[in-house]
Amino acid sequence: ITILAIESSCDETSAAVIKDGKVLNNIIANQKIHEIFGGVVPEHASRAHQQNIVPVIATALKEAGVSKKDLNAIAFTRGPGLLGSLLVGTSFAKAFALGLDVPLIEVNHMQAHVLAHFIDEPTPKFPFLCLTVSGGHTQIVLVKDFLDMEIIGQTQDDAVGEAFDKTAKMLGLPYPGGPMIDKLAKEGNPLAFSFPEVVMSGYNYSFSGIKTAFLYFLKEKKQENPNFIEENLNDICASMQHALIHILLIKLKKAARDLKINEIAIAGGVSANSGLRKALQDLALKEKWNIYIPDFQYCTDNAGMIAIAAHYKYLAGQFSSQDVIPLARMSF
Ligand code: ATP
Ligand code: MG
Ligand code: FE
Question: Entry's PANTHER family (predicted)?
C-alpha cells in the first residue's frame, strides 16, 4: 500500500510517501517570508503553499521512485490550522484523489504529531501518555491505540511554543524564537532569574501569566539598566526556558503517577527543545519511565507524521468523501 501525504496547516508545505508502513521520505519547504514580519502572516502562508505544493509533491514522488499510478490513497491534514493554508492542501488532495480515482484520507494534525512516534523504532507501548507541545497547542494525551486517544489536559490560554516565540520577540530575537532561545539557553544559568508559575487544576496549563510577568520583568530591569538584555541574554533565555519546562513536567508527572503509566512520549515543535529533552531524561530516571522522543525532522510540522497516521487510517478503513472541508479548529 502506497500513500502520498500532504501537510499544509501552518507555514510548512510538506509531502511524504509511505509504503507498507515505512515512510520513504519527508520533503519540507519552509516559508522564509514570515521572518520579515516576526510571525506567520496567514495570507502570505496560503500564497506560499500555492507556490510550493506542486514542486514539493513532485519531489516527494520522484525521490521515492513512485509514480502517480502506484498510489493507493491521498492523505492530507484537515485541521487544526490556518484555514487558508489548510485549503491549499485539502483542495490539492481532493483533486488528486479524484483524478487518480483513489480514496482520500483526512488526518488530524494533532493526532499526527502523536503518531510520529510510529515512524521509527522504538515505538511506545499502549497505553502511553504524550505531551504534545507545539506552536498552537499544549496537550497531555492519553493514547490507548493508534486511532483512539483522549486529551486529558491542555492549555487554557497560550501554547508553550507561543510562550517561547513571544519571549524571543520581547528580547528582540528573530522569528521563530523557540530554536533561538534553545541555543542561547545552553550558555546561560537557568537559575539566574525566576518567574511566577501559575499552577492550573487537573492536568491543564496556562502560559499567559508567565508571559505577562516576563514583560514586566524586562521593563523593570531595563529601567535599572538599559543594557540589561544585552548583558544577560543567555541567562534570561536559560531561566525562562527552565521555568517553561518546569511547568510542563509538573503536570506530566502528575498524570503519569495518577494513571500509573510509565510509557511517556513528547511530540510537537517544542519537543525539539534540548532543555526539555534533557529534563525529561532526568525525570525518567527518577520516575522509572520509558521515554520516547521523536527525531528532529518529525517534531515540527512535517508530512511524514501525516503519512503514518494515514497508514493506520487506511488499515482501519477510515476514508473521507469528496465533500470534506478543512477545519481551523478540530478536536479528537
Ligand atoms: P500546532 O501543531 O499546534 O498546530 P505548529 O504546527 O505551528 O502548531 P509546530 O510546527 O509543531 O507548531 O511547532 C512550532 C513551534 O515549535 C514554534 O513555536 C517554535 O518556536 C517551537 N520550537 C521549534 N524548535 C524549538 C526548540 N528547539 N525549542 C523551543 N521551541 C521550539
Ligand atoms: Mg511551523
Ligand atoms: Fe504542528
Answer: TRNA N6-ADENOSINE THREONYLCARBAMOYLTRANSFERASE, TRNA N6-ADENOSINE THREONYLCARBAMOYLTRANSFERASE, MITOCHONDRIAL
Q: How far apart are CA 198 and CA 304, in angstroms?
A: 35
User: What does 72-84 look like in DSSP terms, one character per residue?
Assistant: SEEEEEEESS-HH
Global pTM? 0.96
Rounded distance, CA 320 to CA 322, Å? 7
The three-class DSSP label of residue 248 is: helix
The chain-wide mean pLDDT, for the chain, equals 97
Q: Which amino acid is at 129?
A: L
pLDDT in tens, 287-306: 999 999 999 999 999 999 99
Task: Specify which residues 23 forms β-bridges with.
Answer: 18
134 lines ligand 1 (CB under 6 A): yes
Give dist(CA 83, CA 205) in Å, integer: 25
Q: How many CB atoms lie within 10 A of CB 93?
A: 27
275 lines ligand 1 (CB under 6 A): no
Report how far residue 45's alpha carbon sits from residue 328's, in angstroms, rounded to the nearest whole number. Answer: 14
> Which ligand is the nearest neighbour of the Cα of 159?
1
Query: Could you give the CA distance from residue 45 to residue 31 in angstroms, rounded to a whole number?
Result: 7
Q: Is the ipTM of this complex over 0.95?
A: yes
Residues in the chain: 332
- Least confident segment among 28-42, 107-121, 266-280, 291-305: 28-42
